[in-house]
Automatic annotation (TrEMBL):
Residues 1-58 form the HTH lysR-type domain. GO terms for cellular component: protein-DNA complex. This is LysR family transcriptional regulator. GO terms for molecular function: DNA binding; DNA-binding transcription factor activity. InterPro entries: LysR_HTH_N (IPR000847), LysR_subst-bd (IPR005119), WH-like_DNA-bd_sf (IPR036388), WH_DNA-bd_sf (IPR036390). PANTHER family: HTH-TYPE TRANSCRIPTIONAL REGULATOR CYNR, TRANSCRIPTIONAL DUAL REGULATOR HCAR-RELATED. SUPFAM superfamilies: Periplasmic binding protein-like II, Winged helix' DNA-binding domain. Keywords: DNA-binding, Transcription, Transcription regulation. Belongs to the LysR transcriptional regulatory family.
Amino acid sequence: MDINHLKEFILLAKYENYLKASQELFIAQSTLSKHMTALENDIGHRLIDRTNKKIELTESGSLFLHYSKQICQNEEELKKHLSLKDVDDIVTINMGASRLMIEYGITELVSQCVKLYPKVRFKITEGSEIELKQAIDQQKLDISFIRELSPAKSNNSFVYMKEQLCAIVKNTHPLANQDEISLEMLKDEQLYLPPDFTVEHQAFLKCCEKEQFYPIISFTAPRMENLLEMVNINEGIALIMEHQARFYLNESYKLIPLKPEIDSYINCKLHHDCPDSKELENFMSIARQYSKN
């Protein structure tokens, strides 16, 4: 028995007219008539008295109408409860990441997780390391990808990526043919860096202090495109993390390692205050597979 035929029968009984019922159902009168005949054949009883022009239900038809309405109502209630169950099954992962998700393949691994586990939802908080740590302290994040100077060491974290600070110059720059660039070579050079609150900027200053080198930092900006444009226009040198730089570079620029090396780590961390869940474990497993360390 087709439940759609029950709904058509209820509507036909309401209008007592094939034309009106078929118009509301957006089907032909002949199709509606065939469906009613099929319904009668399914239950083995005549439901409609066809001896008169006006649609009238037989005694069996009136009884069937009562139960048809109950069946259709039960179907709607079932769908509603199943829908609510689906909502209850949905798990939201609150994830924090610096504004580098695309460059570091984080959007790709999130997409892969959603494909494998359709009931998982991601709520992303993007920000600087300072902003992410504030969100962690406020227990707003379940998991985070955060740049730090030290590799992750706890059981609930791992190094997603290790990379070095590199010099970016135009191909026409005097240092473009160097295999590596020392701090001394940066003397008198105009340097362009990410903002001073970033891990890489602070790591560079710490290295300079240790080497007693005093850099000329003439421009800072959070967007890599702006740093590279300054290199293009002014012939200065941008200091950018290697993987991030490779994402944006084209044939007009040269990436050169710095000496001494200035390392940082993108650590993936599952925060201790968040509840254990298979969804978080599954995501961590996928993230480890995507790890570029």
